[in-house]
Amino acid sequence: xxxxxxxxxxxxxxxxxxxxxxxxxxxxxxxxxxxxxxxxxxxxxxxxxxxxxxxxxxxxxxxxxxxxxxxxxxxxxxxxxxxxxxxxxxxxxxxxxxxxxxxxxxxxxxxxxxxxxxxxxxxxxxxxxxxxxxxxxxxxxxxxxxxxxxxxxxxxxxxxxxxxxxxxxxxxxxxxxxxxxxxxxxxxxxxxxxxxxxxxxxxxxxxxxxxxxxxxxxxxxxxxxxxxxxxxxxxxxxxxxxxxxxxxxxxxxxxxxxxxxxxxxxxxxxxxxxxxxx
Length: 278
Prior knowledge:
CATH architecture of the largest domain: Ribbon
Number of helices: 10
CATH superfamily of the largest domain: Umud Fragment, subunit A
Helix content: 25-40%
CATH class of the largest domain: Mainly Beta
Oligomer: single chain
């Protein structure tokens, strides 16, 4: 079965509709719809547009994306009007707000709003109720958003810090070893140092600054937004990097011990020199 035939049959069944019901809504005969689903007939442009409008999914996606291979969360996103692109190079439409002078706002997502943002990130009605502010030193040509992080995985950046990110449209340009704010449907908002494995393996590797946390991979299909770290704001003083300082002190102590040992060995060698009787 071709992709389009498989997709419209899958979408119809997910809505719990019979062929008769769907055909009536689309304004076509049941036999015509059956022909499309069974590859007996090929739809014209008017039929394609009708399917697109009814299911709320682009024609391009219905023709090219095999929806039977998508996860339940991806299918739900499609049915809510969000076309999932697996390649990472899609031109993404971002819900945003502007001030009275048509300047881009920086929306603020605090910890309490994080759960809601996971669902409403693409909804203009949700985005417009978020608090906003401006930073005059940031470029007016780029889009920024600020997120409040939680936890200690990115120490020395403290828990509760406000992290501002620049919107990344092409995920293939994510740079290894750089910090990013990543939004996924299942895990929500994450602030991590990222390794880009999209082209080779189809995922991003998430790394923490805190060595107590292990790295893990996120499938690119589960990612919804990427923001490149710009700066953070915090009322707390960052914790000192104690493991590194302790290591430096240990190395310094070892050097002193080595110097003492060298002096002792040298002294012992001098004492054991043979006596010259000449």
